[in-house]
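Replying to the earlier thread about multi-chain prediction with a worked example.

Input:
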Amino acid sequence: MDSDYGVPRELSEVQQKRTLYQPELPPCLQGTTVRVEYGDVAIAADPAGAHVISHAYPHTYGQPLAHFLRKAANVPDAKVISEHPAVRVGIVFCGRQSPGGHNVIWGLHEAIKAHNANSKLIGFLGGTDGLLAQKTLEITNEVLSSYKNQGGYDMLGRTKDQIRTTEQVNGAMATCQALKLDALVIIGGVTSNTDAAQLAETFAEAKCATKVVGVPVTLNGDLKNQFVETTVGFDTICKVNSQLISNMCTDALSAEKYYYFIRMMGRKASHVALECALQSHPNMVILGEEVAASKLTIFDITKQICDAVQARAEKDKNHGVILIPEGLVESIPELYALLQEINGLHGKGVSVENISSQLSPWASALFEFLPQFIRQQLLLRPESDDSAQLSQIETEKLLAQLVETEMNKRLKEGTYKGKKFNAICHFFGYQARGAMPSKFDCDYAYVLGHVCYHILAAGLNGYMATVTNLKSPLNKWRCGAAPISSMMTVKGWSRGPATTQIGKPAVHMASVDLRGKAYE
Amino acid sequence: MDSDYGVPRELSEVQQKRTLYQPELPPCLQGTTVRVEYGDVAIAADPAGAHVISHAYPHTYGQPLAHFLRKAANVPDAKVISEHPAVRVGIVFCGRQSPGGHNVIWGLHEAIKAHNANSKLIGFLGGTDGLLAQKTLEITNEVLSSYKNQGGYDMLGRTKDQIRTTEQVNGAMATCQALKLDALVIIGGVTSNTDAAQLAETFAEAKCATKVVGVPVTLNGDLKNQFVETTVGFDTICKVNSQLISNMCTDALSAEKYYYFIRMMGRKASHVALECALQSHPNMVILGEEVAASKLTIFDITKQICDAVQARAEKDKNHGVILIPEGLVESIPELYALLQEINGLHGKGVSVENISSQLSPWASALFEFLPQFIRQQLLLRPESDDSAQLSQIETEKLLAQLVETEMNKRLKEGTYKGKKFNAICHFFGYQARGAMPSKFDCDYAYVLGHVCYHILAAGLNGYMATVTNLKSPLNKWRCGAAPISSMMTVKGWSRGPATTQIGKPAVHMASVDLRGKAYE
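Result:
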């Protein structure tokens, strides 16, 4: 499984066949002359935040939307070499790998070379680490050949994910200047695209010539807004996970004695859990957004599950499958408050061993009630975006344990007359994250790669590549770009319950819309 | 995902397409006149055990092998109704569900009805529970229609798996007599087929007219011997798991910061882990058979992994995938001895809370050294076959924790200069167990179902259906039957270190052959 960057690797038969698939381009991107049309100035979705955002992003907020259209019929295709200047472009993977990421690079490379064979695409090795350390690999047809339509991010790799501190931003700028990059393309989700916007603003401020372009690639599916319909990878993740969940349903139904509690990778938002539930029909899905909206406590959720188990037992069904979003813990009000307190103490430099003794009385009481394993997980240092280490917090085990305790109690009291409750817990995510991308993700990523070229060729800075009308056939897809700052919102945030302050503008994850169609 | 037995269920598009696939029959089983030829008397593989076995199975040991052959060219096909008597046959799923199980029932139903339309096939609902409670469902084309080529055991379900105590054996006999069964077909792995042999012997002894037939169906792939090449489900499980492991390899290579420790369902033998390693090329696979043969301690294994991690770090590789068989813990000498002591104390009726205080000094020292989570798991009551609850013992977490501790120590001492070691643990099995069967498993199970009919039509008792030459195309497959008792061996076993006694003969799991081709 090892590969050395840039060295063609051995592929399996399936992988070889996949490299032969050539995604198409929508008509608007065909040929070498694409027309750019500018629309209205893109306004932040949250008007209340617009002032804060425009203040934080004076150079890049308030730019117009861009649309890429087919050239008018009477305009001849440009003569490639003479009319399109050669460009130097850098590209970097940020954040959790997501199926389809490689095709963004492929699409961008194709577009760059089609417009000027002397242009260069430079990949950064090992993600943002490579960006800061100027570790590069020139992307060529040979390098690309074994990564077309393949999963993972292993052509370039990725490690740390943030470009946020002044030191990091300056480091990135130094690299872009040293390599004389006309543009830097950042492939990632909500946090990486927020970083991209910040980088664009700083570069503009510093008169650095490099334009920054973001691409919406994240398996979580939580980068959704007025301009972005879905993200690269979400389709694959949901399909692969749904297949596995269907297997689990068949299995539960065969053994007739287990409840499978499956936590779905996808961060705090429940998009993956909801979509997988729609595709695979488990017995129950718990949505973080519902829990938060109804302010359900962990005991409420436990009771709901227990009641469902009891009702099923009355129909002689002693098995089931329950889906839980990765970050459910942050949607449960009292656990979220506890996490915030812990987070605040981390921020004050309190060591992990001492945190529990410094919690407020109510938080301490809750903390002591929780099983040992989850206490350890709650105490983990938060991630770089201040969220808890959601992948490490086994909410599915906590719920399974609470449900088991309650069912045993009901059994003893005689209110529950079914079989002894047995739970088996799972965390589904890593298995799917490295999966081979679906046809949709192959196509979508490839087209986005092309769009990136047109953004940078138009000299736009701080934009995200967008493709819309995605539910229609590919020949109806619409390509464009929107300023990332216009996708931002401003949230109040807190470190500990006592202090609340206005946060910086950021691209925030989109929650599942409880009034939306999918939810119904 | 719920179904009520016997009611046609809704299928997905893929499932619907699968029901249309019609497996073929090898030439020897085509037509309605199959010739039975008897071979040598089948002798136990272990001559030393033959005496013990023949003593335990006086009515069923020492029977000849049976071969099912194409009728001679000059013999006309039998006239269906007149020449083949109507039969009543019961069938039951035992043990872990394994992909392809449904096709055994389909094949048997086809064969039965082709030979006499008045014959009846009766399925027991909920596995052996249904067998003892006479909960039945008549198998019809309608019942079968939505389960052809599908995964799981959900057409009939399964719960408890043993038919072993006198009470259970008598209960099974009462059912067979009440339902006037000519034969009972048992679908399962090593323990269920051992039960089948015992049932056959008891029935013969009691002059019960029901013949007992076993079918080799288990995902573990550990029912292998001179007569059985592989089991139904093993091919699917290895393919599905290998796909997931390949995803993990891609993922590890992309993130470049994790070691994935993946424990593979498959009980104590390492067949699944080995086959998946061959298909998916992880960085390391630990085989229980190797560990046992070299008498490696948990510390030896930890050191081996640490050395590999260190060597990889020197090549700037800080990631990897390590496969571990489900039941590795039983192959590690000191842990196995500890488990045996615990098992012995369980057998003496010592309560779980008191076991640790009654361990011998050396066992107690080892026990106290182990992390809390694994101690609890080791104390779980053993399964019905006296083995530990292998699925529950998270050896992968134990190893990951020991490796992490050691790598941190080496980092501190300066002997290891790589990045901080990060492990993420997985148990792969449930995801694949309910998977849709591979073409091979569909075909193999269907043919075995047909073979079952010919065994019972020949009036054989205590035989297992066998198909050999499986690596050749289906039209070269050879069909036959072998007495289950001839597959038995006799092992010494112990309850606690002080007492060793000769065990009952049983079909034992086959270990990975360390001199075999696959291992090389």
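The first strand of chain B starts at residue 34 and ends at 41.

Feel free to reuse this layout for your own posts.
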